[in-house]
Write a structure and sequence with these properties.
This protein is of the alpha/beta class. Helices cover 40% and strands 13% of the residues. β3, α4 (92-95) and β4 (102-103) form a beta-alpha-beta unit. It binds 4'-deoxy-4'-aminopyridoxal-5'-phosphate.
Length: 369
């Protein structure tokens, strides 16, 4: 299998597997006072330190959750702010965390227009929570987070950033982004699925959504998922190595796009004119169904996705591409290739051979009909 879907979930390294296995074999509850409990606590706290270090935060401000979906919900529900301002290209876990949100405007590349934040915030006395992602999971487009956060702070708003897609691909920290809250997910960086974190800047607090035993400094009750948390920490420790490989990925991705455009001149690379993640390519050939492309690639042993990973197996057109002004047909014709740290040139060559012949076959059939 050639796996080109790392924005959906990244492979786990042997070292991460080993660390998870070791943690799963320890018995104690991290809240127990006996030595087994203390050993489990030490594992959780080691991982907390590694995750905090990855984004330049203080360890006590890392709240482990069941993933980024929960972290995004916690940021929005737990902020105590009645007004929530989001961009239309956010992940559904931000868009749907509240029934009523106010929408920022994005341009044709999906980049938030800073003036639209200014307009929304100056129009009300009620302080808001603003939530904008660092890098889009479908297009890789990077948002001007520090500038947006500065605007938000001028109006007394809190700023939350979903940075799930950024570690190992962009160099950043909580303070370089100037955000109050940051969301991460382990399985996008080579850790296990089902664990993530909400990270707070100093002096920022959230009201926990899950009440009970008071774990995670009362911000998220429930016995910690020790194995998954340890895997998250182990993946975080390896992030600088992944970041070192980002330049190689960018040239592989750029070469892929050049060859696509040379052979299929009508292909469009969405977001290509602005700052993007180095591993992501969103390619549309209008009128050629993305769903059919994904199935054809899968049958040839290549994993890619149509826009975002479809939830519950249902492919709907991408809200991100629609917000960028694409028609329904164009949005349903876009595929996402997301390279992994392990992706090689021969993976890309193989993908291009299979994909280009698929596109040619579809076009020939359309012509013949
Ligand atoms: N935010 C973004 C930008 C994502 O790409 C994803 C995963 N598709 C999530 C949030 C949700 O992450 P998790 O799977 O950890 O709940």
């Amino acid at each position: 299998m050639i796996y080109l879907d790392c924005n959906a979930s990244a492979p786990i390294s042997d070292q991460v597997m080993e660390a998870v296995g070791h943690a799963m074999r320890t018995t104690g509850n991290p809240s127990s006072v006996h030595s087994d409990g203390r050993a489990a606590r030490a594992l959780v706290e080691g991982a907390r330190g590694a995750v905090a270090q990855m984004v330049g935060a203080a360890a006590q401000n890392v709240i482990f959750t069941s993933g980024a979906t929960e972290a995004n919900n916690l940021a929005i529900s737990g902020s105590g702010r009645k007004r929530v301002v989001v961009s239309p290209v956010e992940h559904p876990s931000v868009l749907q965390a509240r029934s009523e949100t106010e929408m920022l405007a994005v341009d044709e590349n999906g980049v938030v227009i800073p003036g639209s934040l200014e307009t929304l915030l100056e129009g009300s006395d009620e302080t808001a929570l603003v939530s904008v992602m660092l890098a889009n999971n479908e297009t890789g487009v990077v948002q001007p987070i520090a500038d947006l956060a500065d605007i938000a702070h001028r109006y007394g708003a809190f700023f939350h950033c979903d940075a799930v897609q950024a570690p190992g691909r962009l160099s950043f920290s909580m303070s370089s982004l100037r955000v109050d809250m940051l969301t991460l997910s382990a399985h996008k960086i080579g850790g296990p699925r089902g664990v993530g974190a909400l990270i707070l800047a100093p002096e920022v607090e959230v009201d926990g959504m899950i009440k009970g035993g008071g774990q995670e400094r009362r911000r998220r009750s429930g016995t910690e998922n020790v194995g998954a948390i340890v895997g998250f920490g182990e993946a975080a420790k390896r992030i600088s190595k992944t970041l070192d490989g980002a330049t190689r990925l960018r040239s592989l991705r750029d070469e892929l796009e050049l060859r696509v455009l040379a052979t299929v001149p009508e292909a469009i690379i969405y977001g290509a004119r602005v700052n993007r993640l180095p591993n992501t390519s969103n390619i549309g050939v209008v009128g050629v169904s993305a769903e059919t492309q994904v199935i054809a690639m899968d049958m040839a042993g290549i994993a890619i996705s149509a826009g975002s990973a479809c939830s519950s197996g249902k492919v709907t057109s991408s809200h991100v591409l629609r917000a960028m002004g694409l028609s329904e047909v164009a949005a349903q014709s876009a595929i996402r290739i997301s390279l992994c740290p392990e992706t090689t040139k021969s993976d890309i060559d193989h993908f291009l051979n299979v994909w280009l012949s698929h596109i040619k076959a579809v076009k020939d059939r359309t012509k013949a009909a």
